[in-house]
Amino acid sequence: MPEHSTARPRPGRLVVTDVDSTFLTQEVIELIAEHAGTREQVAAVTERAMRGELDFADSLRERVATLAGVPVSALDAVREAVVLTPGAEELVAEVRRRGWEFGLVSGGFAEVLEPLATSLGITRWRANRLEAVDGVLTGRTTGPVVDRALKEATLRQWAAELGLSMADTVAVGDGANDLDMIDAAGIGIAFAAKPAVRERAPYSLDGPRLDAVLRIVDTVDARRPAADTHPS
């Protein structure tokens, strides 16, 4: 390695959280649906999808279809309306202070997540994109749907990019769409989650603060054999 190499050291952990009802207190699609007059309908489908009663991709298509005709300008109001879960900003700050990596993976929408992530200095994020034509939403998304399989694949991809094993990853979420990444992570945490997710996740928190996940991580790390930990 050259003497003056700027290569970054390998972080000790990668922490990835879901966004809607985990990093944020709301479901973003419901905030958009408010502008379409379909919030109640969308909320009912969202609840069933998060309980695992509906295929996520099918439920997303059904819900997004109700957004057809909503002006793109309405997304400005949605971005203003989103509320961070208590402890979310503190979690990001502490993960960064420790030299770890943080990411967001969402079944919601890049149009809302991207500016939020940018404002918090988060560079690793993935979300669906809404299709728009002539300044209005078409009721469709573009690109691959961020479902439970893609969430897990994203966690694995980011870990590989960082040179981390899956044992060094932490995944946090609340709904059935998060189960695959929770199962795959070294530390999988259900946060204010649906019953089926709480039952399956290795660890569970009822809330209200998202940065409480670090107590679980620290407890697990205190038990890890020295050979399994990375030097700082």
UniProtKB/TrEMBL annotation:
One Pfam family cited in the UniProt record for this chain: HAD
Gene: serB
GO cellular component, one term: cytoplasm
Recorded catalytic activity of this chain's protein: O-phospho-L-serine + H2O = L-serine + phosphate; O-phospho-D-serine + H2O = D-serine + phosphate
Cofactor(s) the protein needs: Mg(2+)
Family, as annotated: Belongs to the HAD-like hydrolase superfamily. SerB family.
Keywords noted in UniProt: Amino-acid biosynthesis, Hydrolase, Magnesium, Metal-binding, Serine biosynthesis
One GO term (biological process): L-serine biosynthetic process
Entry GO MF terms: L-phosphoserine phosphatase activity; magnesium ion binding
EC code: 3.1.3.3
Protein name: phosphoserine phosphatase
Pathway the protein contributes to: Amino-acid biosynthesis; L-serine biosynthesis; L-serine from 3-phospho-D-glycerate: step 3/3
Active site: D18, D20
